[in-house]
Amino acid sequence: MELSDSFKAEDFKKCADFHGHICPGLAIGYRFSKKAMDWLRENRADDEEVVAIIETNACGADAVQVLTGCTFGKGNLIFRDYGKHVLTLLSRKSGDGVRVSLKNGALAIDEEHQQLMGKIRKGDATDAEKERFQELHLRRSREVMEKAEETLFDVRKVHEALPPKAKIEPSKLCDRCGEPTMSTKLAAQDGMMLCKECFRREGV
Q1: Residues 6+ apart with CB under 8 A from 98
Q2: Common-topology check for domains 5-158 and 171-203
Q3: What pTM was estimated for this model as a whole?
Q4: What is the distance between the alpha carbons of residues 126 and 131, in angstroms, rounded to a whole number?
């Protein structure tokens, strides 16, 4: 199936390569990351210049990491498990912040698309149904990519305290399993310093 011009931007290709496929969730993440970065007038973070707060761990989170440079490894990607397509981006340089959220009713529900998705997840879909699902999946993704920003997102300036920069802490051995553990993550129990996993097991 030939891809739409909407998917041919180099930065979108990078998002799709990182995520593994094109889907509506990735397209949403791409669009709100671009909007937030443009609003802040920021470049992709090489270190921790920008902080991202995402409220879903769905597909769009991968586009956020690729486009903003905010990643779990650098400590400037914060996940709040709210189940909402919302991105808040904060600039350490300017102190400004922007919150971009998917509008209510921005994307009409496609019953056929949802039904086919359910069949695929259950392993009940035929080859023809899988092909039809991919067609609808790309159509919905293209719709996200081509919609006007004002019909997709609510955008507002926010003031939120910036989290401290990531710390590099020395490791110490857990007294139970003997595995090197960040020293500040050890917990005392019965005269031993335990990693969280061993601490949890001890409490069972």
Answers
A1: 36, 39, 40, 88, 89, 155, 156, 157, 158
A2: no
A3: 0.83
A4: 9
